[in-house]
Write a structure and sequence with these properties.
By secondary structure, this protein is of the alpha+beta class. Among the domains are: 168 residues, CorA soluble domain-like (Beta Polymerase, domain 2, 2-Layer Sandwich); 62 residues, Methane Monooxygenase Hydroxylase, Chain G, domain 1, CATH 1.20.58. Helices cover 52% and strands 15% of the residues. The protein is built from 10 helices and 7 strands.
């Protein structure tokens, strides 16, 4: 706890900023377990002879590892025992002012650095079985001298499996200087997972736009609104990163090397790309809505045109029927032997003439029919 006097945080900068609602639904494993998963501790130790992956059965092994003054990556999955996580942070000499940032869920996305500690809080987003529904779990990362800590809310087998494999097989052998690179690799790993989601949403919007033109049903608008809501959640999660990363790059961080700072600059570019993609997809959601409204308007016009055709054809027939339906004695056609047949022939001729005239004018063409 020697680093506590060095902390000069801005008032309120490290306050816990919990979200009113989760960015997406809870993972199935957390939902079935009541909202919390049991804590599991493991470490990737960067020995001079080579990295070693080790499962930590208790905090005593973590204390021994810290006393050996060897760089390591502490991986915590599950947040069912917050007191255990607090003890682990204390043994790693992390000031307790950072504890609410990583223990309160769901926490707002943020990048903070006070003293010799860098804290990053993100949400790993993915789709559930229904690609219209988002699922999120919080991932927190703390970097200090010779120690990197990752805390995952939901267990996912091997934590950051690809990064763990890269670290174990890295040539030359990974050392303490690689921990800051590993930090921005972890953030990139979470952000890169959003791009396939955006691509899947773009494909879904293409299908919805075609469906809006072919068969404009209410469920098309419902799905477009759900995708729009998902885009809004993604934007809300990444919005704080846009300015926080810029502020972070302006600070002189003793634990962050030049390669790590370069990685955070690339991270800022990834955030901008995600924002641009979300903006494009948002306009595509508007295009689906406009296509649905236009197609619905065309169908309504087609219905009104059909009713107009029927009214136009039957108006003179109704007029003739009304004339001969009057009860006057001096109507010569009423006593004519062929008057009934003649009136039917006359009405048929008028209806046929009007139908041919309207057909030649293009009134019978259906502009709402599906086209290949």
């Amino acid at each position: 706890m020697q680093s506590l006097p060095q902390l000069r945080p801005t008032p309120g900068s490290l306050d816990s900023r919990r979200l009113e609602e989760r960015p997406g639904q809870m993972p199935n494993s957390l939902y079935l377990a009541g909202g919390r998963a049991a804590c599991s501790l493991s470490a990737v130790i960067l020995w001079p002879r080579g990295p070693e992956r080790r499962l930590l059965r208790n905090l005593g092994e973590l204390q021994e590892l810290k006393e050996q003054n060897v760089p390591f990556w502490l991986r915590i999955t599950g947040m069912g025992q917050p007191h255990l996580i607090r003890d682990a942070l204390e043994r790693c000499h992390i000031p307790m002012v950072f504890a609410p940032l990583v223990l309160d869920t769901p926490q707002s996305t943020r990048v903070d650095s006070i003293g010799d500690v860098i804290a990053v809080v993100l949400h790993r987003l993915r789709f559930s079985r229904d690609p219209l529904n988002l699922v999120s779990d919080q991932v927190s990362m703390l970097l200090t001298h010779n120690c990197l800590i990752s805390i995952e809310e939901a267990p996912s087998g091997e934590p950051f499996a690809s990064l763990t494999d890269w670290l174990l097989h890295k040539t030359p052998i990974a050392g303490a200087d690689d921990l800051d690179d590993l930090l921005h690799y972890m953030v990139d790993n979470i952000l890169d997972g959003i791009f396939p989601m955006l691509e899947q949403m773009a494909n879904r919007l293409d299908d919805l736009e075609e469906a809006a033109l072919r068969d404009p049903r209410p469920r098309v608008l419902t799905r477009a609104y759900q995708l729009r809501a998902n885009l809004r959640r993604i934007r809300q999660q990444l919005w704080p990163l846009r300015h926080q990363i810029l502020l972070f790059l302006r600070q002189n961080q003793p634990v962050m090397g030049p390669d790590g700072l370069l990685g955070f600059q690339e991270m800022a570019q990834n955030v901008d790309q995600i924002f641009d993609s979300c903006e494009i997809l948002r306009h595509q959601c508007d295009a689906v809505t406009e296509a649905h409204m236009a197609s619905t308007g065309n169908r309504m016009n087609q219905i009104m045109k059909t009713l107009t055709i029927v009214s136009t054809i039957f108006a003179p027939l109704t007029f003739i029927a009304g004339i001969y339906g009057m009860n006057f004695d001096n109507m010569p056609e009423l006593h004519w032997r062929y008057g009934y047949i003649a009136s039917l022939v006359l009405m048929g001729a008028i209806a046929t003439t009007q139908a041919i005239y309207l057909w030649r004018r293009g009134w019978f063409e259906d502009w709402t029919a599906p086209r290949r």
